[in-house]
Design a protein that fits this description.
About 90% of the residues lie in helices and about 0% in strands. With about 140 residues, the chain is mainly alpha-helical.
């Protein structure tokens, strides 16, 4: 029994490490993709990436604080009262508003360190990167 517990612990640890490595690899791909699409100079990159990292960190925190709560609240959607569903809907809309406010805040911050055309390209590049990753995942699942 103790051997199985040790084996499960080792496997779980390896799985966590693999997931972290994949996350780091994906992040490196995203950085390369955005750098290429924006055609950042070295001076632009030096001032852009700290602002971008702050933006993505705030976005992750916002999503993490909301996602779990909403998933939990929606877990019993068929049995919700209309009042409960209304509350969840308002929280969903509130999340989208908070996300838009964060985007607006950082669009202004990005304009301080990049030309406005590159700021537009940034948001386009983020969407293009997401599409590319989704295509790769879809192709991987087909094979």
């Amino acid at each position: 029994m103790k051997k199985y517990l040790i084996l499960i612990t080792i496997i779980a640890g390896l799985a966590i490490q693999l997931k972290a490595q994949n996350g780091e690899k994906l992040e490196a791909m995203k950085i390369g993709f955005i750098t290429q699409k924006l055609n950042l100079t070295s001076d632009e990159a030096k001032i852009f990436w700290p602002v971008y990292n702050k933006y993505t960190e705030e976005l992750k925190k916002l999503r993490a604080s909301t996602k779990g709560k909403l998933l939990e609240e929606m877990s019993d959607l068929p049995n919700m009262t209309d009042a409960e569903a209304e509350k969840v809907l308002n929280e969903m809309v509130g999340f989208k508003i908070a996300e838009a406010e964060l985007l607006k805040k950082y669009a202004n911050e990005f304009k301080k360190v990049l030309p406005v055309k590159k700021v537009v390209l940034l948001f386009k590049a983020e969407n293009d990167f997401k599409r590319e990753i989704l295509k790769k995942l879809a192709n991987r699942n087909r094979n």
